[in-house]
Amino acid sequence: MTKHAWHDVSYGADAPGNVTGIIEIPKNTRAKYELDKESGMLILDRVIYSSMYYPTNYGFIPQTYCDDNDPLDILVLSQIEIVPMCLVECKVIGVMQMLDGGEMDDKIIAVAANDMSVAHFNDIEELPEFWKKEMRNFFQDYKKLENKEVSVDEFQGREKALEIVNQSIEDYKKKFGTK
């Protein structure tokens, strides 16, 4: 029996501080892959219209649920491009809160726990300022050529991110029951 990436994979035994991330989009690509909620497979949603590339690996935390009817998004910092559908042990360090088409769309920011080039970061405030500027710029601008507006709030630290992860786990349990 095939497992469903969203529903049959654990969010991690050490959540909310360390979670399992499932990568949909490797960094440095223009391909917008997305989880097909029915099959659990990846679909190519589109090639992003702008000439920008994802600055981080992008995915979701399984068995979480958010206001946008999707699992909680996660941006995974690593020195490498992580292949789609790879499970990654992630250390949560912060959150980028944003509005996408008028809906809240939080992005948890984490480091790949087994990548020693980033594993020493414990809070978003420790990141080089340029990395935060690059993430903000990408998410504010990558949909402009689609005539869509995205607004990025200030980055929040680890504590706020942990609250959001916990809430999304609870929301999943309310929506789908417990595994």
Automatic annotation (TrEMBL):
Location(s) in or outside the cell: Cytoplasm
Is Membrane there in the keyword field? no
Residues reported in the UniProt entry to bind substrate = K32, R46, Y58, Y142
Q: Which domain of life is it from?
A: Bacteria
A Gene Ontology term for the protein's cellular component: cytoplasm
Under InterPro entries, the record lists: Pyrophosphatase, Pyrophosphatase_sf
Instruction: Keywords in alphabetical order, please.
Output: Cytoplasm, Hydrolase, Magnesium, Metal-binding
Q: Which residues bind Mg(2+) 1?
A: D68, D73, D105
GO molecular function terms noted in the UniProt entry: inorganic diphosphate phosphatase activity; magnesium ion binding
Please tell me where Mg(2+) 2 binds in this chain. D73
Identify the stretch annotated as signal peptide in this record: none
Cofactor(s) this protein requires: Mg(2+)
Task: Say which family it is in.
Answer: Belongs to the PPase family.
Self-association state and partner proteins as the record states = Homohexamer.
HAMAP family according to UniProt: Inorganic_PPase
Q: What does this protein do?
A: Catalyzes the hydrolysis of inorganic pyrophosphate (PPi) forming two phosphate ions.
Q: What is this protein called?
A: Inorganic pyrophosphatase
Supply the source organism for this entry: Nonlabens xylanidelens
